[in-house]
Amino acid sequence: MLIVLTTGVYLGSVDLLKRTDNLGQTFAPMTLEQKAETVATVFERYPEMSTVRFPTEHTPYVQASTRGKAIALDNELNALASRASFDLPFYETAFWLHRNFLIENGGKYINAWASLAGGIVTLVGIYLWWRVRNGFRLKQTFPKSTRSSSLLKSHIQLGLFISIPLFILCISGFLITYNGLWAEALNQKTVTQSFPVSQGNNWLSQLTNAQQVWPNAELVSVSKPREQKGKKPNKTSRLDNHKPLAQIFSIQFDEHPGVWLREADRISINHTTGVIESALTHSDRPLSGRISSFVRPLHDGLNMPASYVALITLVSLIGTGILSFSLVTFCRRTFGRKTKKAA
Prior knowledge:
By secondary structure, the protein is of the alpha+beta class.
């Protein structure tokens, strides 16, 4: 648990630094014509990228991204910066320590059950405090000395402060590994609707029709299906490889800019034919789907505001301190007794 929390502080800090850097850009909203041109140009220029994000008040520049890599561009599509997370010092080691303790086979499952155990221990701690509760004493939040009694009081107060977000981080970490428990809830079929058909392979026509579905929402990004590496084509696909492949793109919207989860409203469109396959807002999902869509964002801040990333990074930092206090107290009591007996 100490390893997970310590690496979580590092990973969260790196994410915060990225989010707070506006690269010298000032937010200027794009028209649909500009967004269509941006999508076409960026996907052609950077075919390895899977998502194009348009400037927003939170991130005032265009961003082309794929897993572990992002390229920032201004509104004229001049490159501003290129970032690869694993190129940062210690980032790759910290990431895999956080994910699977650097154990390739089975490490993520050990991590998942450790996270679940951490959530249970958090609940036990709340229960024990409730049994002997004496209120919340702010002056005992930080230890006044290195004495075990002072560390224990600080453990209790800090633990109460972060108990709920720490429990959420633990349970969401477990669920990320065992995504079969909740991923199906995200695959909800939309109510049958009729949408206007756009021109095939025409981004302006397709983005215009998508915007008309939700005229008051902000169109914030477009994603293409990721290529599945290592997957061999089957016999049928080899026979039909002369046919043009239909690509289903996802167009993301922010219908309610004030909510925490962003890019939660999505339209799937067949870029080849211009047919809108589905349209689903976050509020239209059943309760199970709405809860499931928060599993990963609650754990790593994906599509959440920077303030939430700051919160979970702070929780990880405090959690690291609490466990350190516990470790010091445990070592003193265990090895201190042995030393006295030997004397």
